[in-house]
Amino acid sequence: MGPHIWQHGAKKTIEQAHLDITHFQGMTKEEEMQIENQANRIINDCATITKSFMDKAEAEKLYGFHLYQGGVVPGNELRVVNIEGVDTEACCGTHCDSTAEVGWIKIIKSQRISDGIVRLYYVAEERAIAVMNSEQTIMNALCSTWSVEPADLEQTAMKFFAGYKRLSTETQKQAQQILNLQLKLVLSSQDSKFFYSKSEHDAPTLYFSQLPAFAAQLKEQGKGVVYFGSSFVFGLVGVKDCK
Fold first, then answer.
1. In 76, 184, 200, 234, which residue has its Cα 20 to 30 A from 7's Cα atom?
2. How confident is the model at residue 213 (pLDDT cuts 50, 70, 90)?
3. 49 within 8 A of 82, measured Cβ to Cβ
4. DSSP output for 38-63
5. CATH code for the part of the protein at 7-135
6. Which residues pair with 29 in a beta bridge?
7. Exposure pattern of 181-197 as b/e (b: 16+ CB <10 Å)?
8. What are phi and psi of 151, to 5 degrees?
9. What is the full DSSP assignment across 80-97?
């Protein structure tokens, strides 16, 4: 990702781990994949990991201040952890003897947690296998439901989504026309003062956008309309004894 990358923090648990790095923008899924692939190549290379104590001045001369990715270590002696051909840092934590012991890494997601800091969430070994199995199960279920091969899954999903967006727009227009006709019927009726209509929509956006245009006329005629949606009750001036 560039020479500006520096470890800013880390946390590891059995369920999940994260690594914070210095970076000026959020990461794309392609960048996450590149990092994941590179990490797994290092794991598959079975690189040897050595741990030894060294004089601080000697270690700094040999490896530079890159040693202190996890923070500056006090004292005149450092415990140096060296992943052969990959990375060298001063650390007193627990480490494997070979990168192969990590098993596998799967990046779950990345997130900008503050200005200049990106957090990578990941799992390893058995947890990585569980996550990959879960993703494969979802893909298998979609392939079965849509009767397509995995290679055609993305194209099929995009086709369905485009159709959904198109039909949603048409449905919205039709619902708006129906509501306008209902309100015109209310205004033209000479026999009733109160009207009731049950909404099939989850949100009252349509009613709040359309009803104000008719509110003055309804008030003038002393008529009221109550709309019941799944999560709201909306009433106009003139509604008194509705239950």
1. 76
2. confident
3. yes
4. HHHHHHHTT-BEEEEEEEHHHHHHHH
5. 3.30.980.10
6. none
7. ebbeebeeeeeeeebeb
8. -65, -25
9. EEEETTTEEEE--S---S
Is 70 exceeded by the pLDDT of residue 235? no
Chain region(s) in the chain for CATH 3.30.980.10 = 7-135
Helix (H) or strand (E) holding 20: strand 17-22
Mean pLDDT value of segment 79-84: 93
**What is the C-alpha separation between 97 and 75, in angstroms, rounded?**
25
In this predicted structure, what is the pLDDT of residue 165?
Answer: 92
Q: What is the pLDDT of residues 5-22, one digit of tens each?
A: 988 889 999 899 999 999
Single out the residue of 20, 24, 116 nearest to residue 69, CA to CA. Answer: 20
- Closest to 42 in 3D by CA, of 89, 119, 101, 115: 101
- Give residue-wise pLDDT tens across range 164-186: 999 988 988 888 888 788 778 87
Q: What is the CB neighbour count within 10 angstroms for residue 18?
A: 18
The H or E element containing residue 114 is strand 105-114
CA angle 177–180–182, rounded 5-degree value? 110
- CA–CA separation, 78 vs 81, rounded Å? 9
pLDDT score of 184? 82
